[in-house]
Description:
Helix content of chain A: 40-55%
Order of helices and strands of chain B: HHH
Number of strands of chain B: 0
Number of strands of chain A: 8
Radius of gyration of chain A: 20 Å
Number of helices of chain B: 3
Largest sheet of chain A: 3 strands, antiparallel
Mean pLDDT of chain B: 79
Oligomer: heterotrimer
Number of helices of chain A: 14
CATH class of chain A: Mainly Alpha
Largest interface: B-C, 61 and 83 residues
Mean pLDDT of chain A: 87
Helix content of chain B: 55-70%
Low-confidence stretches of chain A: none
Strand order of the largest sheet of chain A: 1-2-3
Structural class of chain A: alpha+beta
Shape of chain B: flat
CATH superfamily of chain A: Cytochrome-c3 Hydrogenase, chain B
Order of helices and strands of chain A: EEEHHHHHEEHHHHHHEEEHHH
Structural class of chain B: mainly alpha
CATH topology of chain A: Cytochrome-c3 Hydrogenase, chain B
Strand content of chain A: 5-15%
Shape of chain A: globular
Number of domains of chain B: 2
Amino acid sequence: xxxxxxxxxxQHPATHGLWDLFVRVxxxxxxxxxxxxxxxHRGVEKIAENRTVEKFLPLNDRLCYVANSSWTTLFVxxxxxxxxxTSPERAQYIRVIVLELQRxxxxxxxxxxxxxxxxxxxxxxxxxxxxxxxxxxxxxxTGARIMHxxxxxGGVRNDLPPTFRERALKAMDYMxxxxxxxxLICGRNExxxxxxKGIGALPLDRAIALGATGPMLRASGLERDVRKEDPYLVYxxxxxxxxxxxxxxxxxxxxxxxxxxRQSVSLVRQCLQKMPEGDVMIPGFKMPKVLPARAVxxxxxxxxxxxxxxxxxxxxxxxPYRLKIRSPTxxxxxxxxxxxxxxxxxxxxxxxxxxxxxxxxxxx
Amino acid sequence: xxxxxxxPVAIFALVALIFPFLAFFATRFFRPEKPHALKAQTYECxxxxxxxxxxxxxFQYYIFALIFVVFDSVSIFLLLWALVLPGLDLAAKVSMFLxxxxxxxxxxxxxxxxxxxxx
Amino acid sequence: MDLYSAVSGLVNWVVxxxxxxxxxxxxRGPVVVFLRDLYGSxxxxxxxxxxxxxxxxxxxxxxxxxxxxxxxxxxxxxxxRATMLGIRGIGRGTGAxxxxxxxxxxxxxxxxxxxxADRHVFAAGPSILVASSVLVLVAIPMSEGFAASxxxxxxxxxxxxxxxxxxxxxxxxxxxxxxxxxxxxxxSATQMISCEIPFLLSLVGVVILAGSFRLVDIVHMQGxxxxxxxxxxxxxxxxxAMISEIERIPxxxxxxxxxxxxxxxxxxxxxxxxxxxxSGYIRGYVGCALGVLLFxxxxxSPVPAYSVALPWGGEFxxxxxxxxxxxxxxxxxxxxxxxxxxxxxxRVDQIVNLGWKRLLPLAxxxxxLTVAFLIFAPELESDTLAMGVAFSVPSLFLVAMFWKWGxxx
Lengths: 364, 119, 409
């Protein structure tokens, strides 16, 4: 039978951004796929070479429009390692709070988009409604809802506002309840199960071969989390579980991410409890005029997987000689054509959504 | 059943056919006409489509389409049978079951075949 | 019939008045006599046409009402307020005029067609769809009086015209020469071949009990006990197959917006798009109306007869039957909206499996059960309550067991 090439994107309701998956279909079965990436390329890495570190900080927020602060924090951690300074403990706790709130917000956006990909439009509104709470907390803490520009080299910009603790605890209690409710409308929804079980299955060996990290890898069954194996900030002092799946299909990706949301809620609670008093910036810290002529590679657990920055200082200026950003979804997306073959057209959004693409971060 | 019974249907069919065409004709006086080459392009997510869509599409449920034809006529047959059922004797009532059983066997066979053929 | 006599009275009064006016002006002659004769011979057809337009208008008003209910209800289920558009004095904050705004907007939109499309089929598709959807309205009686026709084979006629839409969808999907619309049209055909048979077979049990294809007779037979009690399996099958026929979530595969952009409607704009949307809701109304007629006692009142003396004299003994009918239809439609809010969309192979491996055996099983009861326990027919228990308990038990075994997955 005649086969045809079908564009799934870039201007497609299912793709979570400007991404084109070009598939060859026989009837509705996919025989071959290609990805086209780069519709959103802005040359962030090159911009970094021409700006001082302080000036580049706000641009980190633009790396991913769903999980902004995680990239800024990662960059700041990399610069701190390069300069060999350590931020005060309280600042580190605040950073963890922001990171985990960001993870909750990001997973909520993912869950909503994932459900709307299978026609369950109620869930996306519920998820975005609850994400608003996280955004409110961000606004309270950092003054901005999306682009926070909050971490600084040597600490964070400001301390927690007076009633932040109570508000955050209240929101976390609410999120705990809501996670159970999501379980009801997604996990115990026969159609959700029908549509996700066995779809886009990625066995562990192939997941490793394709370079999957984060929830994608954990859904395939490997317990691997940068927060555990290469602890940064204060994650070694906090108690949390790393959820793993079994088959690496759409269903496991959902369970892993939902459980991660629950763990993040508990992490925020622990941070608020254990947080010591003290400064949030290194007293009297000033950004040096020269970055040392060294290179650091700092990785962190982004909501989407293992993000990393590779910063090279040149010993002459305070502009990075080279900045390389490792985006986890870039690697996930490149892997999709390998395991999408044999799926149906209806499964494409679910397989796409399972990777949780954030195109701003992929194309950089 | 008389002709008079079906007169409303005929007139309604006329109204139903005229209604969309009339409405469509009426929009002529309200809608703008600004043709543009880009507007006449086939939409495919903002990319220029590769190849035509008028192709020999691989319809994957061919066996179902075949048994559909059989069952569609059977269902009308069953409906008529149901209409006169109270007046039938026992043999006529039961023989329909034998007929349905045969059909079910055929259906099971076809489904098995379909599974073997499934792409 | 009430509707016909009312309309004929009205038309005769208007036409008689016109002729009286003409004659009063002193215009007499062969032309007037000819017109009078013409009217005399065409009177019945003219009255029928007026009734047809009336029923069409009622159907379109129902579409407006249902769309508004759908928007508001699904908005509330998703924890938002949905449309709030209204003008001062006319339902501000209720979204009462949103639909009219939408209709006007689509009416004045430019009509686009892709250059590569088969223009004639492309234009004909939505028209056929709308015409076939509207035509079913003729067979739907709202009460004994309010009906456009009283057909012997009303049920069969309704089913036949109702099953016509996938053809139009397929035509328009193919004609646009767009890959999404092509896949959408093909999916429509797939859906038809998988759910049409259970849809028809679910009616067999009802027809056995009612002994007629006339919808009025079927409603009369439910005077004491609605068929939902006697035929629960048939209703389940009917309901699922009906959602598939009217192409709503969870079975809106032909316009699966997540993967196919807008499915078979992708290339349509302006009024053609409005037609596609409208026919969906007309079919929703027809599907719910048939469900109410077949399983929920049609226009019969669900409460026992009563009458209350009104303070200004006269008696009130419940709303008119048409109102009961519309209320039941809207309630059933609300269940559809609820289903839409709670469920996602199935896959194509899943709907084929559902139709052929789940619904079809279930429908056949229901027929067997009904006939077995009629053969082995004919004396039950005199006692409606015993019959209800005898029919519904084993059916429900069986469905519950199937559910427990996970047979519906």
